Amino acid sequence: MLSALAPKPLLVIAPSLDRHAEKADVENAVNTARLYYQMSGNNDALQFLQPMQFNRFTSEMEDIVSDWVHQQIHTTK
Predict the structure, then answer these.
(1) Degrees (nearest 5) of the Cα angle 8, 1, 3?
(2) Are the C-beta atoms of 6 and 40 separated by less than 8 Å?
(3) Nearest Cα to 48, choosing from 28, 70, 19?
(4) Is 2 in contact with 30 (CB distance < 8 Å)?
(5) What is the pLDDT of residues 34-67, one digit of tens each?
């Protein structure tokens, strides 16, 4: 599913202690998508973060998402 988004900008934040998503499965999905981003020549468009957190949306993650969206808005203009 992630691969279908290439080469569009994508930010994946997947807490490493998420009990609903196996860390290895998430990494495999992102690594597969990364191959499509590389083939499209837009490898930098995929950003992957794995904070040492449980499945929750922290204020730090909120800041990261906010900054990323802000960057995308100003990059596309």
Answers:
(1) 45
(2) yes
(3) 28
(4) yes
(5) 999 999 999 999 999 999 999 889 999 999 999 9
Residue count of the chain: 77
What's the total number of domains in the chain? 1
Q: Specify the amino acid at residue 10.
A: L
Q: Residue 22 is part of which domain span?
A: 2-76
Per residue, the 3-state secondary structure of the chain, as one string, reads: CHHHHCCCCEEEECCCCCCCCCHHHHHHHHHHHHHHHHHCCCHHHEEEECCCCCCCCCHHHHHHHHHHHHHHHHHHC
Indicate the pTM of the whole model. Answer: 0.88
